[in-house]
Amino acid sequence: MKDHWHSTANGPVYARHWGDPDLPVLLMLHGFPEYSGAWSDLAPYLSTHFHCIAPDQRGYGQTGGPDDVTAYATGALTRDMADLITGLGRGPITVLGHDWGAAVAYNLAMRSPDLVDRLIIANGVHPVPFQTALAAGGAQSQASQYIDWLRAEGSEDVLAADNYAKLRALFAAHMDMSWLSGDTLEAYVTEWSRPGRLKTMVHWYRASPVQVAKPGQPIIGLPDYPIDKLTVHQPHLLIWGENDTAILPEATEGLETYAPHLTRVSLAEADHWLAHQKPAEVARIILEWTGVRNT
Length: 295
Prior knowledge:
By secondary structure, the chain is an alpha/beta fold. It has a single domain (about 1-290), classed as 3-Layer(aba) Sandwich (Rossmann fold). The protein contains twelve helices and eight strands. It has an eight-stranded mixed β-sheet, sandwiched between helices. Helix 2 (about 75-90) crosses helix 3 (about 100-110).
């Protein structure tokens, strides 16, 4: 693994690289509350066939970012990654996103199709099915009540208290967190502890326009979403850890409307953190789908 800095219009972005730079590029986008090191379990399985690039996205890790909520609008975050890809000078690449990284990955594929030739999502959601589920007032709305809590002023201070106890509990949400221990946990705490970092991480939620219904109180009058502008035209793989309690299957219902070239693969013994829990299996799925066999 090697460290690199990439130039973007919004400032430099730190990234970890694995594999031969001459191999096809795989851009790996982490979510909340992770950082580029989130891919350290999976990338070694893929780096014999891809040049894996995992950035600390804006507001995270060594990249950091301004204390300005508007800097974390999805469009700005997507431009960061579009600039990074353009700077590589390698043409369209494969993009893999998880959690919030999936939001950026979807936007890259939809807004800059010339930069993305294949889209892989691991337990992440397209904006339209997700907003539909959030507004329904059902199970996904219940599971996502933490979003409005995070948006409240000072939530980052509560997350950091008592050695990040609340953040670690939010991370777990009744899922298998055995992987977050020892040196791995220490590395995460190091990233969370950078000055102002938790606040800028939480700004991703504050900048998001998604509306979360109260359980049993559906939000009505959602806008009509333009399918033509929100379609993923590239080959698209969705890998799903079935035991995810943060993002539920209903948040992907109707995805085929926006992703006509979709392939779904489920992992029965994994949850939201599948890239940590089942890295060899996730890598096998990716390599088979991309037409590369792990040898």
